[in-house]
């Protein structure tokens, strides 16, 4: 085990030349990010999850009911042991051959069996009330963390001059505010990861799981090798659009279509301008060119920048989806916000690439 840990924490991978882990040990004068700091995020993730349950039960749900959002879900399929066994153990989408066999076995017509499977599949979808409560929780968290990030960053020199992210790197002291910002973001995404196993299982379960793992990996990676300054810029920039997306979803679930349309347009403008404009010009320019000039490249620098460039590719694809949905909605005369979700499957490559370069 000691040999594996020594290999994983190889200084020549994580740190610039002539820097060792001993140089970044905490002293009475300075405090630096330590990998063991992140252990705190696990119990905090549980606390965040419990806060979410209380919030959804006593705040979000009453708000949803006040907006006349129905608590009942889709119509339930009538109990049938044979069809239930096929649904749970074999397939949720039976082909024609299986439908005909079930029709003969149950003496039901094929259309009735197809309707049963459709209703049974719909049972696994969360109700509008559940979706509203989840969106309200995420909206509240994103609004809080984005507001905190802006208030914190406006006091820092690297918000106004990104070269400050690399001066004296990696000997940049860890402040209480920065530590709180990182741990809270990490705890939130850990809670989302854990809650997938307790929430109603959805069809994008694996894709969302990979997305959360990729996000957690990026946050952890930037903290461990003390790229936390530029990490705060990335986190704050990404939280900005998420606030508007969750607000638009809430308006859609409440059937406030005009408000939903306005919020979705605002979301699209903020998303595209921040992810296709500010992110490459402000963030990538700093991590790729300013850091090269001031610090110079080393193995984990290549990994970090590769992940950020891949993230830019995802931004481009997501922006295409937003424009596509907007054009389709305009042609239909309605903004279909519930059809939009980030294409999480591509986040899988961030996760794989992170561990691939780590192994190298």
From TrEMBL:
It catalyses: sphinganine + octadecanoyl-CoA = N-(octadecanoyl)-sphinganine + CoA + H(+). Residues 83-127 form the Homeobox domain. Keywords: DNA-binding, Endoplasmic reticulum, Homeobox, Lipid biosynthesis, Lipid metabolism, Membrane, Nucleus, Transferase, Transmembrane, Transmembrane helix. Gene3D superfamilies: Homeodomain-like. Pathway: Sphingolipid metabolism; Lipid metabolism; sphingolipid metabolism. One of its GO terms (molecular function) is DNA binding. One of its GO terms (biological process) is ceramide biosynthetic process. PROSITE patterns: HOMEOBOX_2, TLC. This is Ceramide synthase 6. The gene is CERS6.
């Amino acid at each position: 085990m000691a040999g594996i840990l020594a290999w994983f924490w190889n200084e020549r991978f994580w740190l610039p030349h002539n820097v060792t882990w001993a140089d970044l040990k905490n002293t009475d004068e300075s405090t630096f990010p330590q990998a063991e700091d992140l252990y705190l995020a696990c119990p905090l993730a549980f606390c965040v999850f419990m806060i979410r349950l209380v919030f959804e039960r006593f705040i979000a749900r009453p708000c949803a009911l006040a907006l006349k959002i129905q608590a009942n879900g889709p119509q339930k399929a009538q109990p049938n042991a044979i069809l239930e066994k096929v649904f749970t153990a074999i397939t949720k989408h039976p082909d024609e051959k299986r439908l005909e066999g079930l029709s003969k076995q149950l003496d039901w017509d094929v259309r009735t069996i197809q309707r049963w499977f459709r209703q049974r599949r719909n049972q696994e979808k969360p109700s509008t009330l559940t979706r509203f409560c989840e969106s309200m929780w995420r909206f509240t968290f994103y609004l809080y963390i984005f507001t905190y990030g802006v208030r914190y960053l406006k006091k820092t020199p690297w918000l106004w001059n990104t070269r400050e992210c690399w001066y004296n790197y990696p000997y940049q002291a860890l402040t209480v505010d920065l530590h709180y910002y990182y741990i809270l973001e990490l705890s939130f995404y850990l809670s989302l990861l854990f809650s997938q196993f307790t929430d109603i299982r959805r069809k994008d379960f694996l894709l969302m799981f990979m997305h959360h793992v990729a996000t957690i990996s990026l946050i952890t990676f930037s903290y461990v090798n003390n790229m936390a300054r530029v990490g705060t810029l990335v986190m704050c920039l990404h939280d900005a659009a998420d606030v508007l997306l969750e607000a638009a979803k809430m308006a859609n679930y409440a059937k406030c279509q005009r408000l939903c349309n306005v919020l979705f347009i605002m979301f699209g403008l903020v998303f595209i301008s921040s992810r296709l404009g500010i992110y490459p010009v402000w963030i990538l320019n700093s991590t790729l060119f300013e850091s090269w000039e001031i610090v110079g490249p080393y193995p984990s620098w290549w990994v970090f920048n590769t992940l950020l460039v891949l993230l830019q590719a995802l931004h481009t694809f997501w922006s295409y989806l937003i424009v596509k949905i907007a054009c389709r909605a305009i042609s239909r005369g309605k903004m279909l916000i519930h059809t939009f979700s980030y294409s999480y499957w591509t986040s899988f490559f961030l996760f794989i690439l992170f561990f691939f370069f780590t192994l190298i």
